[in-house]
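Subject: complex prediction, re-run

Hi both,

The earlier run crashed halfway through, so I resubmitted it with identical inputs.
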Amino acid sequence: MYIWHRAVSAVSSRRAAQQVRHGSSGQNNFHAKYGMGVLVSGTVFCTAVWAYVLTQTGIAWNLSPVGKVMPKEWRQAEE
Amino acid sequence: MQEPHDVFEKYSPELRLLLALEPEPECRGTEADSPRTGPAHCLSSCPWFFLPPATHSRRSWDISQRVGAFYNTLGLMLATRAFSLIGKRAISTSVCVRGGHGVAKVEDYTLPAYFDRRETPLPDIAYVQTLTPEQKALKEKEKGSWAALSNAEKVALYHLSFKQSFAEMNQGTGEWKSVVGGIMFFVGLTGLVVLWQRKYVYGPVPHTLDPEYKQQELQRMLDMRMNPVEGFSAKWDYENKQWKK
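This time it finished cleanly. Structure:
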């Protein structure tokens, strides 16, 4: 076990010594510069608009009353 | 100390580099100088039977002579995968006279083009067609022992033949971020459309959806024992008058 650990540490240290610092070599196109901004702003816009539409516009969704609504007597006294 | 081969990590597969730098072997000609082409020169390491009879074994980087030989090999070369360092793209568009008949003007799109693709690691032509004097000197040095080339020189030779390394051509673009962001934006626009519809298209909400009405409706449904086995009324605890937990 000890010998295995020693071998593993030797290999990993040699690999670390071989690593080269390349700097930023990714592509510098539209997606690299603005992609994350487009993604985040689009998602925020979408969730904001739909959250407002679903809750604040008065659209009737008629969700199930189970667990939410308490019944109320409906029979009217006969006159 | 950095090992040499790490510099070329992103240029792998090494085969592309190795093949591109392979010195051209002597070509075999079958005839003496032909009066049509003059002192033509061997263009590549193609098999000799792909070459016209007039090519010879003397190698040359001279462009005008390559152009002359090119027209003779036009039909053959288009079907041939050339492994040479300098391609055979013609830069002259004048009509070439051959055998008393004119040859049609060569269109640019008909010539072999350079592509950086993982599936075709060795493009039909080299990337750099016209060499500067420094580059020509480097090519001459390449004919000697490769061990004498520094890493920077090897990389420069690579970039004479190829434009991008495999690491560069395979890297992702991040295009998905723009795509998904665009999707979300247009879905958001759809939400605005629904908003407008609610204001200007939908009619008033029926009174049957008032909260009080729904409460009474609920009581009536429970009184009728709607779906008492597994459905609606089964969820209501009639003993304690509350919803089942």
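Chain B has eight helices and four strands.

- K.
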